[in-house]
Specification:
This protein has a domain at 16-218. Helices cover 63% and strands 0% of the residues. It is built from 18 helices and no strands. The chain has helices at residues 3-9, 16-23, 26-29, 35-38, 43-56, 61-71, 81-92, 94-106, 126-142, 146-153, 164-177, 181-192, 200-213, 221-236, 242-279, 285-289, 316-329, 335-347. Helix 5 (43-56) runs antiparallel to helix 6, helix 7 (81-92) crosses helix 9 (126-142) and helix 12 runs antiparallel to helix 13. The longest helix has 38 residues, at 242-279. The radius of gyration is 31 Å and the shape is elongated. The two termini are 14 Å apart.
Length: 354
């Protein structure tokens, strides 16, 4: 079965990448600010942390002098806090800065942001590490690297970055796409708790994500469709490793279970119909228990007993009935996914029992 073809047919769900790219324009379109609601670190607070760091670090004196000069009260006042942090990161952490720039230029994942555990005294100030992880995680999410983005976004807290709303929004967006339901709901609730200060688009998209993921049920066709979409995303990123193969096996197993349940349901309905039809003729226990008066030669026609096999060996007519029942119970765009599944079973009968 081609998971690319199946995933592309499940158009009922909006691509989260579209939500993320739309969110990138939020600050340009909204005059709302989150600074009074989440109280991110101020320039004064960060300047004090920088001073304390400069007194204990083993970083070169030239590096410390450049940073202190950049953050001095009589320094360049045209730079906003984000620009100050970017320039500070470039001064203190050349490797991290080059890593960020390489990803921005190429779109190729550069690995996680890591500090040398053997040289903790030479680490940059903690607030610069938080800033680097926030920026990197946001960029990764925008490019569809949701697992990698969560690795970076999980570490900073809202009061440690210059844009707390963006941190929570992109973290929730990654959790939403990866079907981390409980974590996503918790992050969105934290974000929406301060909805009065949220940019308009963050607010609207967060509410949509919450309404979308709360009803999600495990082993539902909705979940299967999203898993297929994630398989396609990973394949587009050139990843076909163990995680993708495991997810593919999970999808097939879930579809197996769904179709088996539908077949059982169909058989129960047929039995109920037969029972109701038999009961409509009326019951006469006394007459039914009397021996018959008619006689005959006692010969019967031989009938060929067919082996109905397992549910995966359904005859074409019954298989079509199962498909029709699926069409009645679920949106029409799921039908192609199930048809693809049956084609896979036809090509490789053993796969239906995996």
């Amino acid at each position: 079965m081609s998971f690319r073809r199946i995933a592309s047919s499940l158009t009922g769900f909006a691509a989260l990448a579209g939500l993320l790219s739309s969110a990138c324009l939020v600050h340009a379109e909204s005059g709302l600010s989150v600074s009074n609601r989440w109280t991110p670190p101020s320039r004064q607070q960060l300047s004090e942390e920088l001073t304390a760091w400069s007194q204990t670090t083993h970083a070169p004196n030239e590096t410390k002098d450049r940073l202190l000069s950049l953050w001095a009260e009589d320094g360049d006042t045209t730079l906003d806090l984000r620009q100050l942090l970017d320039q500070s990161l470039e001064i203190t952490s050349v490797d991290i800065w080059q890593q960020l720039q390489a990803f921005q230029d190429t779109g190729i994942y550069q690995g996680p942001i890591e500090l040398d555990p053997a040289k903790p005294d030479a680490w940059p100030p903690a607030f610069l590490v938080h800033h680097a992880k926030f920026v990197y995680g946001k960029w990764l999410a925008e490019k569809g690297f949701y697992d990698e983005a969560l690795t970076e976004l999980d570490e900073p807290t809202p009061d440690q970055v210059v844009d707390p709303a963006a941190l929570l929004f992109f973290e929730a967006a990654c959790q939403h796409y990866l079907l981390k339901k409980e974590e996503c709901v918790a992050t969105l609730q934290q974000l929406l708790a301060r909805s009065e200060g949220l940019p308009a688009r963050y607010l609207a998209l967060s509410q949509m994500m919450l309404k979308d993921i709360e009803p999600l049920e495990t082993d539902s066709l909705d979940e299967v469709a999203r898993l297929m979409r994630d398989i396609e995303r990973r394949l587009d990123l050139g990843r076909a490793g163990k995680k993708v193969r495991q997810t593919e096996e999970d999808v097939v197993a879930k579809l197996d279970k769904m179709i088996e349940d539908l077949e059982k349901q169909r058989q129960q309905q047929q039995q109920q119909q037969q029972q109701s039809q038999g009961g409509g003729q009326g019951s006469q226990p006394m007459q039914d228990s009397r021996p018959g008066t008619e006689s005959g030669p006692g010969e019967v026609d031989e009938k060929e007993m067919k082996n109905k096999g397992e549910w995966g060996d359904l005859p074409p007519k019954e298989r079509q009935e199962a498909l029709q029942q699926i069409s009645n119970e679920y949106p029409s765009h799921y039908r192609r996914a199930i048809e693809e599944y049956f084609r896979k079973i036809a090509r490789d009968p053993s796969s239906g029992n995996n």
